[in-house]
Amino acid sequence: MRLVFSNIRFKSLRATQPKTNPAFMREPASGELSALHQAASSPALRTDPLQAIDRQRNAYSPLERALLDFLHEAERAKEQGRWHDALHFLDSADALCTTYCLDAWKSHIAMHRGIAMTRLEQWSSAIEVLLPLVVHPPFRDDPSASYEILHCLAICTHQMGQLKLTETFLRFILHMLDRSDVRWVHTHLNLAGTYELMGEHEKAFQHYVHAAESARRLGNTHLEAWALIGLSATQLEQGSTQDVECMLNHAAKLAESLHDAILDYAIQHNRFMLKRVRQDFENFLHMYSTLVERVPNDEYRAKLWEEKILYDIMIHDWPQAESDLGEALQLPLTTPIRAQLLRLAGKCYLQQQQWDRAEFYLWRAVEALRACGSVEVYAVIRQLQWLRVRQHGEEGKGR
């Protein structure tokens, strides 16, 4: 199931400046407050700090003006979608704060650096920058900023396959939000998708149900369609076809007016899964030849290969199964999805009684499943234990 993390919003720097006096103020001379100090204390600064400060720009020191220039350039770059440039200016602002001990601004700049790093897929760097901010007092009391930080951390840990951490951050978000907030529905969908990857299908099902009901109540057809896709996928992954066709028909009806290519593909992909589970192989192969031309990304390409490999195993077409596995494992995938393919490779070689190759792939699957916190690791370990007992039995017979 594709996670539907809502688009990361690079919230305006103007909306998140320190509400207290910035630390880069000059020391007042002869007991007089600087113009910047006065501006920082005014109501205008609290509503639009950069704009309020700009009006008295000439009164600032070169250091103060340099910091403002970096923030303005970062703001302009993010509005134009130039994330590398935005990060460059934010890094410069951060370096300036570090050099001259402008501590009051550092945490706010750090938040925007973390968001930019997330947009640039610099996952580990974003986590390093954002994680300390989770317990930072100003952000703890600012629900909007807390959401941005936790949301980016959830994305980064998910992409790095650290699903237990993803679950933690998403649960924090869930407790922050009201049921009437569309982000509450997004979070349930993302938690459900995370539980799917962790092999906890019952939990995934419950969160998809919550998401579907809430999206319907809010009148959000897009998220309701995604929730129905998730519900149907959870059913199919457990080998059940109950109500799946009804769910997919309803999702398709909701999607008619949305013109979302990935949503349309996801519905067709689940219909494709349904054909395999029902062993309707003629229509399965026909859909495969259609979907392989439309696959939108590597994640869905891997899922498509996975379904094809399961079909190959069902009809005992071992050469084709091995060929498809080779293609699938070459894709650049996150750890949880790669773990499923490695487990499938182990299953393929177990059924061919190629014990050494089966053991090789199953151990790799165990490593990947452990890394992402999946409960499915225990089933794979049991397979390895059975394989080890069988190998010892054969060695005993040989003696």
TrEMBL record:
Keywords: Plasmid. InterPro entries: TPR-like_helical_dom_sf (IPR011990), TPR_rpt (IPR019734). This is Tetratricopeptide repeat protein. SUPFAM superfamilies: TPR-like. Pfam families: TPR_12 (PF13424). Transmembrane segments: none annotated. It comes from the Bacteria.
